[in-house]
Amino acid sequence: MELQVGEKAPDFELQRQDGGLFRLYDTLKEKNVVLYFYPKDNTPGCTKQACEFRDQYEIFREQGAEVVGVSSDSPDSHKKFEKQFRLPFILLSDKGGGVRKLFGVSRKFGIVPGRVTFIIDRTGTVQYVFNSLTKPLEHVDRALDVLRALNKQQMQSA
User: Which residues participate in catalysis according to the annotation?
Assistant: First the structure.
C-alpha cells in the first residue's frame, strides 16, 4: 500500500550516483525533499521528467526543497544519465526495490516500476503524493505548486 499524505516517511539509506550514501532524514534536517520514483534511466518519459526537474531545479531550491530521483538502475547508469543530461540533483540506486517497497510504489501491469512523487517535509511527514506513469511532466508542476502552498502556509502560521 502506497504511503499516504499525513504518514511518516520511512528513513532509508541508498547509494548516490557519485558512490556516496544518501540518508533521507539527514537531508530532512535542512530542507523538504521531493522524492520521485521513476522506472528507468534513458527512457523517453523518464528523461523528459528528469530534464524538467533539472530545468526547474533552482526554483525547487528557492522553495527550500531538494529533488531526489530513485530507480533500480546502478550508480554507474545514474552517473551516465546525470552527465548526459546535466542533472543537478541526486539520483539513488534502489537495486532490488527495497525502498520502493517501503514507500508502497507498485509496478504497473506487474512489470513496469511505478512513477510516484512524494513531498516530504522537514518533520518527515508526507505532504503530497502524485502517482502517474503516463504524465511525467505533471510530477514536476504539481510538486512546485504544493511546495509553494506549503511555504505560504508556514509563513502565515509563523
Answer: 46
